[in-house]
């Protein structure tokens, strides 16, 4: 997932050295030791959900606070409101200006960052765990979460900046293709909303719109707090209460509607690019889908395994139609997309698309071979330690587990879940989810497909 940096500060060489030692230690541990994370879970008296892992190796504390306030929550006619609200949280809060916030974070060596997508709007803090520095950093985080000021001048500036960035993105054929793909795939579903929003709608947004969205979605029922680091359970409980004390108690955001299978379509968009950008796919799976590991491992064989994948072998290696070709599932709260993508020379667009379609069709019909599946599982299991080799990566998983209501032993059982995948089950799962005759296709480029 993309991260929007709210403010960046450089940690001391001593801290970086300690972190390097931790990475080396993690990589030397047995796999079972790395995965056996004691995740503690509770609710604050106000009802906020909290997930905590105590880790004493580093004198650091990482916190992530996620709200169900992504772009799928944009009201009709106000596309971009969620993104703008999130981006303004640290641009003046609790009586402090954006400069004050940046300076106070710098004084204690803390880092404030954020993430935003269709499901989530989140703020993360990394700070030293020593009481004095931690308390000052938490004061800033609490102000940002509970008392954003949305200064009128800053609102005006950030609206202009966001509109400009959207306009600039229109020159990128990859961005044009992605936006068109989501529109074709999701139609009137909230996932069709572009994360950045619509320039015309953004221009009309007011400070009142921001306040109303904030009060509705940045609330206790919509929040998940994840903590990882050098504190006790009692300290974690106190921090969670502190960070949520001033949040509204409005009702939780309603569940998003279930996406419907898209109407097959073929969209061609002229663009002065030197290559065609091709996207093809359908509605895939939700994050809690029981077929998650079957589709995840199977897709590694199809197009997620780089040079080990069938798509790379057929489209690039054998025919030289593309430098890169891939496929992936993007699971979200509701069914996210299955997407296959490539870039190719304008005159090769039609041929490259045909080969990609044929490869996908063959994979759905036959599934992976036993040799391909064995290699995929070996690579995934072998790479698992790198998925949890830092506090920040573990925090990211902790946030996903909490936000998407995954089992607390998700990381403990990850390797076993991958190992349990078999070829026949992969074939059946792909056949259930992907009809090769009912795909959405988007081609951006001035060349004509044959």
Set out the fold topology.
Blueprint: E1 3-7, H1 13-28, H2 31-35, E2 40-43, E3 49-54, E4 60-67, H3 81-87, H4 98-107, E5 111-116, E6 121-128, H5 131-146, H6 152-169, H7 173-186, H8 199-204, H9 207-217, E7 223-229, H10 233-244, E8 265-269, E9 275-283, H11 292-304, H12 310-317, E10 325-329, E11 337-345, H13 349-366, H14 370-387, H15 391-403, H16 410-419, H17 423-433, E12 440-444
Parallel strand pairs: 3-7, 8-12
Antiparallel strand pairs: 1-5, 2-3, 4-6, 4-7, 5-6, 9-11, 9-12, 10-11
Helix pairs in contact: 3-9, 5-10, 11-14, 11-17, 12-13, 13-17
Describe the structure.
The protein is built from 17 helices and twelve strands. The chain has 450 residues and is an alpha+beta fold. The protein folds into two domains: 3-244, Metalloenzyme, LuxS/M16 peptidase-like (Cytochrome Bc1 Complex, Chain A, domain 1, 2-Layer Sandwich), CATH 3.30.830; 265-444, 2-Layer Sandwich (Cytochrome Bc1 Complex, Chain A, domain 1), CATH 3.30.830.10. It is globular, with a radius of gyration of 23 Å.
Please tell me the total number of domains.
2
CATH-scheme architecture of the largest domain: 2-Layer Sandwich
Alpha carbon gap, first and last residue: 35 Å
The largest sheet is: 7 strands, mixed
Mean pLDDT: 91
- Run of helices and strands: EHHEEEHHEEHHHHHEHEEHHEEHHHHHE
Q: What is the gyration radius calculated from CA atoms?
A: 23 Å
Give the class from helix and strand content and strand pairing.
alpha+beta
Number of helices: 17
* CATH class wording of the largest domain: Alpha Beta
The general outline is globular
Helix content: 40-55%
Total count of strands: 12
Oligomer: single chain
Could you give me the name of the CATH homologous superfamily of the largest domain? Metalloenzyme, LuxS/M16 peptidase-like
CATH topology of the largest domain: Cytochrome Bc1 Complex, Chain A, domain 1
Low-confidence spans: pLDDT under 50, at least 5 residues? 1-35
Strand order of the largest sheet: 1-5-6-4-7-3-2
């Amino acid at each position: 997932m993309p991260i929007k940096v709210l403010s960046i500060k450089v940690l001391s060489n001593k801290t970086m050295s300690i972190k390097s030692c931790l990475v080396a230690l993690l990589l030397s541990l047995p796999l079972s030791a790395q995965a056996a994370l004691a995740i503690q879970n509770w609710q604050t008296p106000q009802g906020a959900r909290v997930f905590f892992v105590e880790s004493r190796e580093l004198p650091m504390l990482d916190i992530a606070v996620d709200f169900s306030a992504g772009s799928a929550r944009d009201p009709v006619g106000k596309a971009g409101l969620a993104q703008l609200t999130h981006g303004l949280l640290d641009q003046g809060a609790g009586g402090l200006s954006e400069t004050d916030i940046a300076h106070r974070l710098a004084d204690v060596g803390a880092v404030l960052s954020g993430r935003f997508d269709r499901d989530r709007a989140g703020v993360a803090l990394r700070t030293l765990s020593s009481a004095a520095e931690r308390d000052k950093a938490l004061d800033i985080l609490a102000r940002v979460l509970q008392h954003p000021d949305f200064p009128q001048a800053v609102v005006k500036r950030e609206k202009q900046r966001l509109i400009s960035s959207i306009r600039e993105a229109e020159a990128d054929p990859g961005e044009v293709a992605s936006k068109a793909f989501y529109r074709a795939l999701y139609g009137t579903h909230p996932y069709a909303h572009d994360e950045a929003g619509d320039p015309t709608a953004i221009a009309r947004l007011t400070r009142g719109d921001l306040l109303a969205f904030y009060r509705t979605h940045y609330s206790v029922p919509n929040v998940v707090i994840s903590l990882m680091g050098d504190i006790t359970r009692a300290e974690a409980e106190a921090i969670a209460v502190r960070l949520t004390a001033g949040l509204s108690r409005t009702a939780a955001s309603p569940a998003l509607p279930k996406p419907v299978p898209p109407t097959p379509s073929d969209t061609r968009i002229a663009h002065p690019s030197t290559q065609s950008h091709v996207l093809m796919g359908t509605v895939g799976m939700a994050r809690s889908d029981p077929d998650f590991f079957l589709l995840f491992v199977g897709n590694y064989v199809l197009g997620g395994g780089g040079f080990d994948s069938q798509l790379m072998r057929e489209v690039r290696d054998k025919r030289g139609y593309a430098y890169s070709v891939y496929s992936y599932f993007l699971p979200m709260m509701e069914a996210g997309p299955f997407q296959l993508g490539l870039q190719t020379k304008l005159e090769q667009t039609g041929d490259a698309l045909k080969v990609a379609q044929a490869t996908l069709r063959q994979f759905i019909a036959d599934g992976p071979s036993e040799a391909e599946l064995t290699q995929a599982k070996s690579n995934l299991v072998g790479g698992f330690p790198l998925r949890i080799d830092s506090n920040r990566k573990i925090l990211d998983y902790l946030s996903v587990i909490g936000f998407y209501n995954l089992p607390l032993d998700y990381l403990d059982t990850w390797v076993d879940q991958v190992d349990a995948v078999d070829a026949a089950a992969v074939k059946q799962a792909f056949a259930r989810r992907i009809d090769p005759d009912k795909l959405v296709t988007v081609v951006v480029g001035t060349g004509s497909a044959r």
